[in-house]
């Protein structure tokens, strides 16, 4: 728990939890331990670790900013560390004393399942050594890798297992369900190849596909150039506090941080001395990302 709390003090606690999740699941599986008795203390430690430093939680940064605006002494990075350390120690003691109250739950899925992509459908062409062999041989050979969904011959579906005594022929197509890794490795199997319906830039295949189509629809679309225009003017209201040397700007923006950096550069001020306040301004479709030249000129 102390190690997880230390990590959460310098990063987001959700990221630390996601990083530790597969590690603890693997540890629980190899040591035959209940996963819940490892995951629950870890999640508690990650939450308590956010109290160890100022930038581990947005609320602390907001409180530090409010203190500075009110004229009080601001908070340093480790100003709250003593309180956080006490909370972490209390959490460790709580888990040690109450560990028998934590329910025993074991993960039923492999620790990598949440990272594994789903299985997809694709078509493979049968040739070479598989010609003349029954479909059952193919299914037995790739039972753990592929699932045959449909058998096609000349683009016409056959029965689930073909006719009695029927065997695979050259250029037969099998619709299979497999993982992305297995689909990528099909080309390395002898006598198997992915069926390419069409290739990008192949004009002949494209024209042939249109020629075989029962119906062809043609439409011409003209898309005008997007020119966003907002209801509110591209203006701002600024006030400068000579006592603190800080500038406060109220403006319509999609990128307050970008406004702050641009104005600080133009005005030769520290970014911390420039505050940009943005209200509910609605959408801008990109036109409010940067401070306009007129606004920069008027403030300078």
What is Rg? Answer: 32 Å
Average of pLDDT: 79
Low-confidence stretches: none
Termini separation: 52 Å
Query: Strand content of the residues, in percent?
Result: 5-15%
The number of helical runs is 10
What spatial order of strands do you see in the largest sheet?
Answer: 3-2-4-1-5
Helix content: 25-40%
Query: How many discrete structural domains?
Result: 3
What general outline do the C-alpha atoms trace? flat
Main beta sheet: strand number and arrangement? 5 strands, antiparallel
**How does the helix and strand content classify structurally?**
alpha+beta
Tally of strands:
8
Order of helices and strands: HHHHHEHEEEHEHEEHEH
Describe this structure in words.
The chain is of the alpha+beta class and 300 residues long. The protein folds into 3 domains: 2-101, no CATH class; 117-212, Regulator of K+ conductance, C-terminal domain (Alpha-Beta Plaits, 2-Layer Sandwich), CATH 3.30.70; 236-299, Aldehyde oxidase/xanthine dehydrogenase, molybdopterin binding domain (Aldehyde Oxidoreductase, domain 4). 36% of the residues lie in helices and 14% in strands. It is built from 10 helices and 8 strands. The protein has helices at residues 2-8, 13-30, 36-48, 58-69, 81-97, 135-141, 180-185, 203-212, 256-267, 293-299; strands at residues 120-126, 147-153, 156-157, 172-178, 192-194, 236-241, 246-251, 274-277. The chain has a 5-stranded antiparallel sheet. The protein has a 3-stranded mixed sheet with strand order 6-7-8. Helix 1 crosses helix 3 (36-48), helix 2 packs antiparallel against helix 3 (36-48) and helix 3 packs antiparallel against helix 5 (81-97). The longest helix is centred in the N-terminal third of the chain and has 18 residues, at 13-30. It is flat, with a radius of gyration of 32 Å. The protein starts with a helix and ends with a helix. The mean pLDDT is 79.
């Amino acid at each position: 728990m102390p190690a997880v709390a230390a990590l959460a003090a310098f990063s987001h606690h959700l990221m630390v939890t996601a990083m530790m999740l597969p590690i603890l699941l693997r540890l629980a599986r190899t040591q035959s331990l209940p996963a819940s008795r490892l995951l629950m203390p870890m999640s508690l430690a990650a939450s308590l670790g956010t109290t160890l430093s100022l930038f581990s939680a947005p609320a602390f940064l907001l409180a530090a900013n409010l203190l500075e605006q009110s004229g009080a002494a601001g908070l340093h990075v480790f100003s709250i560390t003593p309180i956080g350390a006490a909370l972490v120690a209390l959490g460790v003691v709580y888990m040690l004393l109450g560990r028998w109250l934590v329910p025993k739950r074991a993960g039923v899925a492999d620790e990598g399942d949440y990272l594994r992509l789903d299985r997809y459908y694709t078509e493979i062409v049968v040739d070479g050594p598989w010609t003349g062999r029954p479909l059952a041989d193919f299914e037995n050979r790739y039972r753990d890798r592929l699932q045959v969904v449909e058998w096609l011959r000349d683009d016409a579906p056959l029965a689930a297992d073909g006719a009695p005594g029927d065997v695979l022929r050259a250029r037969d197509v099998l619709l299979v369900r497999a993982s992305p890794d297995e689909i990528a490795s099909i080309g390395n199997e002898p006598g198997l190849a992915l069926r390419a319906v069409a290739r990008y830039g192949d004009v002949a295949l494209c024209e042939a596909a249109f020629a075989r189509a029962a119906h062809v629809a043609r439409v011409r679309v003209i898309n005008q150039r997007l020119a966003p225009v907002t209801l509110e003017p591209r203006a701002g209201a600024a006030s400068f506090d000579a006592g603190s040397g800080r500038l406060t700007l109220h403006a319509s923006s999609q990128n307050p941080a970008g406004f702050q950096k641009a104005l600080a550069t133009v005005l030769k001020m520290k970014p911390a001395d420039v505050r940009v306040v943005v209200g509910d301004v609605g959408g801008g479709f990109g036109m409010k990302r940067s401070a306009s030249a007129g606004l920069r000129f008027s403030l300078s």
